[in-house]
Amino acid sequence: MNVGALLIILLLIFAFLGCPIVFSIGLASLAAILLDGMPLMILPQKMFTGFDSTALLAIPFFLLAGNIMSVGLTKRIIHVSNTMIGSVKGSLAIVTVVACAIFAAISGSSVATTAAIGGITLPAMAKEKYPTGFAASITGIASSMGTLIPPSIFLIVYGSATETSIAKLFMAALIPGILLAIALVIYAHVYAKRHDFPSHEKASTKEKVSAVKNGIWALFMPILILGGIFLGIFTATEAAAVSAMYAFLVSLLVYRELRWKELKEVLKQSAVSTAAIVILVGASKVSSWVIVTSNLPNAILDFFHSVTSSPVGLLLLLNVLLLIVGMFMEGNSAIIMLTPLIAPLLSAYGISGITFGVVMAMNLSLGLVTPPVGSCLLIANEIAGGKLEHTLKAVIVPLLIGIGVLMLVTYLPPLTLWLPDVMF
């Protein structure tokens, strides 16, 4: 048997047995190396190669910034959004989508977005008698934008694995992220009008100005991060460090909502999350090397050539594959496992690696609201205190909306390539 195929089979077996994915990759790689008679020195060499990437430095800083923001600044973002659109039918659901989009542009983490935004808006929706299934589903899928809207951890991992410019990937994901947010806002408003959800009294101009004034430092953060990257003032990695320092100074000195005892827990959470992702990337370099040297990608390329010779057909097959994978596997793990197999296909069919990076991130973000993994949906449902079967039923329509936006992004390359082409 091809050693690369053996590695993937062993990885899946270990994962289904409940072994953590990072250990599954490591054990499968070690077994493949031993069975093929390769020198064991490959293991530490390739792991070090995986660690030795400046792009990965962005991950701990963005995670830290998001964790600091969740301590107090999140409430200000929600307050500003609610003041601006509180008079609209279903305003709390719309505020949830908008706040998730803003928070996603800070943390790059969908799970953090679910906990931070959902922890505030879901209890508020419950008080106003929103159906728990709808509330949890709209929060879950809106939170999944954290893996798409830059700075996205998925895109950083993909860029590191494929040696693609992370700044270009961030730019490419901006328009698709905005499109998805707009689509979800429209859906929430239409649903609210159909079911006659309550709306709040329209805020006065004075109240709106006061809300913006109180939340300006929090609102300026995504502008600082994305504006700095897009204008070439700093790289994605430098932007991550700037965002962490900005969040720290604003939370501690301006709003004074961050306490030193809370900072210890924030640093601990960020360190644990970073360690898990970085070790995963390091282990993946070993598995990627084994898969590529086994000639498995060429065999897969020949198979796809036998099925379709059209880029349109290939992209459709890859979308179906990624949607299925996203249902069962954590996103970063899926990127690491599949990228060595898919990259040769992209080159052979003339498909932009930047476009596909966004497509891959979108697919795997939708996986965050589909069982059995569906971490964002499960967290939102837990916070809302709803029945999972009701939430799963309610998420069908927003999930189809997400797939519709995914198809637009897949088959209209200008949506992902226009902004990078303009800026570079």
Description:
There is one protein chain. This protein has about 425 residues and is an all-alpha fold. It has two domains: about 1-40, no CATH class; about 55-424, no CATH class. The chain is about 80% helix and about 0% strand. The protein has 20 helices and no strands. The protein has helices spanning about 5-15, 20-35, 40-50, 60-85, 90-105, 110-125, 130-145, 155-160, 165-195, 205-230, 235-255, 260-295, 295-305, 310-330, 330-350, 355-365, 375-385, 390-395, 395-410, 415-424. Helix 4 crosses helix 11. The radius of gyration is 22 Å and the shape is globular.
Determine the mean pLDDT.
84
Query: CA-to-CA gap between the ends?
Result: 45 Å
Q: How large is the radius of gyration?
A: 22 Å
Give the % helix.
over 70%
Strand content: under 5%
The helix count comes to 20
Would you tell me the structural class of the helices and strands?
A: mainly alpha
Q: What is the count of β-strands?
A: 0
Spans where pLDDT lies below 50 across 5 or more residues:
none
**Helix-strand pattern, N to C?**
HHHHHHHHHHHHHHHHHHHH
What is the domain total for the residues? 2
Keywords:
20 helices, mainly alpha, 424 residues, 2 domains
Q: What's the SSE blueprint?
A:
Blueprint: H1 3-16, H2 21-35, H3 42-51, H4 58-85, H5 91-107, H6 110-127, H7 132-143, H8 153-162, H9 166-194, H10 205-230, H11 236-254, H12 260-293, H13 296-307, H14 311-328, H15 331-349, H16 353-366, H17 375-384, H18 388-394, H19 396-411, H20 414-423
Helix pairs in contact: 1-2, 1-12, 2-12, 3-12, 4-5, 4-6, 4-10, 4-11, 4-12, 5-6, 5-7, 5-9, 5-10, 6-7, 6-17, 7-17, 7-18, 8-15, 8-16, 9-16, 9-19, 9-20, 10-11, 12-15, 13-15, 14-16, 15-16, 16-19
